[in-house]
Recover the amino acids of this structure.
């Protein structure tokens, strides 16, 4: 694949299956994969069992399906293992091929906002990019814009990058810190909303553009989000670093499955926007 591809088909026609085959072949040939999983079925990529034993399948088979067939879970797992072994053999695939895939590319299931898999620290760190600002200004500003829009969206503020003073303030604070090579975190950013290191926004004095009382209200709103116990999972796990998600330390490709099925529409948009802004 050199540009883009779209898989189109009716429900149950095998779109996901074809996508998984293409991803597995890419991984076997050294191509990493960043997989955004809004439905929750791409996590099946991690269910690779080289020995194809019933015990491998037992934790994952559906108990309801077993009961409907009048089988125990163990018997249903044996039947499922036999089905997979025979089906793969019919396509010329053996356990050795599965071992080759597993050896070629480690797979990780990331669950932003949840501790069910590997949590992903989406907003806990705003590390300053080490880039040539003159050459990559537009790219970095796109990343900043995506972060500001997504963070404000989580607290119910539909922020336009041009007209929203909340968005303009956040974007300027992040850019000001990054241009000086300063890393940020969400706590520091909230503090800077109350006491900005900038005197002006455009031609207006800061307090005229965004009065202190209103800035404090915004800071309180964001602080309420961060202080919420349910939000702590968003700050857990490794920092969002697409390069490390896609390659091991020794250069091998990775498959990074980012599970999104448990998130609200706003949260999904938040995660996808930040991931794509860092992947460009």
């Amino acid at each position: 694949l050199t540009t883009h591809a779209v898989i189109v088909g009716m429900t149950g026609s095998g779109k996901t299956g074809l996508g998984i085959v293409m991803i597995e072949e890419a991984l076997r040939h050294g191509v990493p994969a960043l997989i955004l999983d809004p439905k929750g079925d791409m996590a099946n990529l991690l269910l690779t069992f080289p020995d194809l034993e019933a015990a491998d399948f037992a934790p994952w088979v559906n108990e309801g399906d077993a009961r409907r067939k009048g089988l125990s879970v163990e018997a249903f797992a044996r039947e499922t293992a036999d089905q997979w072994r025979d089906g793969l053999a019919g396509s010329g695939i053996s356990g050795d091929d599965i071992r080759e895939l597993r050896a070629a590319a480690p797979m990780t299931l990331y669950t932003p906002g949840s501790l069910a898999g590997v949590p992903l620290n989406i907003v806990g760190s705003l590390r300053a990019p080490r880039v040539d600002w003159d050459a990559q200004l537009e790219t970095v500003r796109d990343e900043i814009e995506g972060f500001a829009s997504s963070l404000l969206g989580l607290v119910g503020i539909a922020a336009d990058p041009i007209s929203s003073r909340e968005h303009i303030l956040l974007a300027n604070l992040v850019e000001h810190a990054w241009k000086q090579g300063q890393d940020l975190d969400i706590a520091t950013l909230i503090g800077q909303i109350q006491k900005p290191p900038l005197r002006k926004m455009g031609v207006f004095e800061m307090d005229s553009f965004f009065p202190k009382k209103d800035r404090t209200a915004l800071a309180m709103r964001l602080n309420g989000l961060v202080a919420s116990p349910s939000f702590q999972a968003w700050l857990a796990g490794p920092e969002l670093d697409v390069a490390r998600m896609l390659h091991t330390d020794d250069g091998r490709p990775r498959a990074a499955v980012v599970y999104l099925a448990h998130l609200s529409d706003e949260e999904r948009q938040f995660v996808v926007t930040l991931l794509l802004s860092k992947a460009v």
